[in-house]
Amino acid sequence: MTNERISELEALGFSRWTNGSMDRLYINAAQLGLNCEYYKTGNISRAEFKGESISNSRARGMKAAKTYIDIKTGRAYSDNETLLEAVKELAGIN
Q1: CA-CA distance, 46 to 66, in Å (whole number)?
Q2: Pairing between β-strand 67-70 and β-strand 52-54 as defined by DSSP bridges
Q3: CA atoms of 16 and 66, how far apart (whole Å)
Q4: Is 63 helix (H, G, I), strand (E, B) or coil?
Q5: pLDDT digits (tens, 9 = 90+) for 50-94
Q6: What whole-number distance in Å separates Cα of residue 51 and Cα of residue 32?
Q7: pLDDT recorded at residue 92
Q8: Which of 53, 59, 65, 71 has the least CB density, counted as fewest CB within 10 Å?
């Protein structure tokens, strides 16, 4: 992945993280389209992803998911299948 491409992805909301031999671009669920409203307790009261209503449980899972692109391989990874598809779409990865 070129430095120019990395800069483009950072402009889209990705954050670069490097540790030892690992070099990744992370993005969170909110930047991919997750929108939540909360009770005063901090629990999710209402959630939607890309404008569609989703369950609070599903939203919690999306918020907790690690979603990133491995810079060395150019592949996207996520703990959540919906976010994996969203990051591939945003970054133009197959």
Answers
A1: 22
A2: unpaired
A3: 13
A4: helix
A5: 999 999 999 999 999 999 999 999 999 999 999 999 999 999 997
A6: 11
A7: 92
A8: 53
Distances (CA, A) of 16 to 12, 37, 43, 45, 48: 12, 28, 29, 31, 27
- Identify residue 85 by its one-letter amino acid code: E
Task: Kindly state the tokens that stand for 4.
Answer: 């120019």
What are the extents of the domains in the chain? 3-78
Query: pTM to 2 decimals?
Result: 0.90
CA 59 vs. chain centroid, Å, equals 12
**Helix, strand, coil tally for the chain in percent (to 5):** 35, 35, 30
Number of helices (H) and strands (E) in the chain: give both, helices first.
Answer: 3, 7
pLDDT, one tens digit per residue, over 7-42 is 999 999 999 999 999 999 999 999 999 999 999 999
Dihedral, 20, 88, 80, 28 alpha carbons, nearest 10 = 70
**Strand, coil or helix: what is 76?**
strand
Q: Give the separation between CA 60 and CA 31, rounded to whole angstroms.
A: 15
